[in-house]
Fold this sequence. Notes:
- This protein is of the alpha/beta class.
- The protein is 38% helix and 22% strand.
- The protein has a six-stranded mixed β-sheet with strand order 6-7-8-3-9-10. Strands 2-1-4-5 form a four-stranded antiparallel β-sheet, with no helix packed on it.
- A hairpin with a 2-residue loop joins strand 4 and strand 5.
- Helix 3 crosses helix 4, helix 3 packs parallel to helix 6 and helix 11 runs parallel beside helix 12.
- The structure holds adenosine-5'-triphosphate and magnesium ion.
- Adenosine-5'-triphosphate binds next to strand 2 and helix 1.
Amino acid sequence: MGTVIEVEDLRYTYMENTPLAHQALAGVQLSVEEGECVAIIGHTGSGKSTLIQHFNGLLRPQQGRVRVDGQDLSDPGLDLKGLRRKVGLVFQNPEDQLFEKWVGDDVAFGPLKMGLPLKEVRDRVRWAMEMAGLSFEAMKDRPTYALSGGQKRKVALAGVLALRPKVLVLDEPTAGLDPRSRKELLGRIEGFNRREKMTVIFVSHNMEEVACLADRIFVMAAGQIVAQGTPREIFGNREVLLQHRIGAPETVEILYRIQGLGYPVDVGAYELDSAAAEIVSILRPQGVKSHGPGI
Ligand SMILES: Nc1ncnc2c1ncn2[C@@H]1O[C@H](COP(=O)(O)OP(=O)(O)OP(=O)(O)O)[C@@H](O)[C@H]1O
Ligand SMILES: [Mg+2]
């Protein structure tokens, strides 16, 4: 175990040296440990997508330093192919990621580029599609242009998984999915992290999914990381939430309201079961011990 991604004072300006120059990253500091599941949150335009595009070398640091698995991304001799294999990035917009005519070919693109034997390519494509929630048999011969938004998102994910990356970076992975697909995908992401031991970094505007998936949260504003901590530390700290205008999961909002009415609840109990237990605890007469959730 060690640090897998290390970012120091990273700055990035789009269209530098033109009248349209726009500084998207203004000195980002962050590190991610191997095996972690990390969420990056922050308002629209705060620099989340720009930041994570540095993790697989899609953007190169203009100033500051990015190190991935010990490799410095500013190193002129950087093995970019190796890096892309190690860090799989699923874009915010799947249309930007699909370019082959057929689904199977699209998922096979990365493994073929790696020069793997055809049998292994096929095995990987099958595995990656099933992992992304797509039936291999039913979907491999479908044209990519004729897929629904959610299906495109799954194909893009499969294409990245087929590289069997060590680090999986997802830009708003559940945007546009129906509640069931969203839940299934969250379960799979958790599986990649816990069972496949992938380091996961995901961007999300959905605080419920951030609370249930992330070990640690980074909050971005105006191109910087303005707060970081466990979900309990972030959502349980009213000042941080108000200062950075971060929404909290509904469970936390309810606990804050109950606290505001004068009841002594733990507002950091953001998980559904613990929030329920907090509410039950104030319904009980003083001194009666709770037997945990579900009663
Ligand atoms: N290709 C580009 N050219 C110029 N400016 C850009 C470009 N891409 C992003 N920006 C600007 O950089 C800033 C950061 O954009 P970025 O896409 O990183 O934000 P974000 O946090 O991912 O937002 P969202 O939550 O809406 O996806 C924004 O102000 C955006 O307008
Ligand atoms: Mg974005």
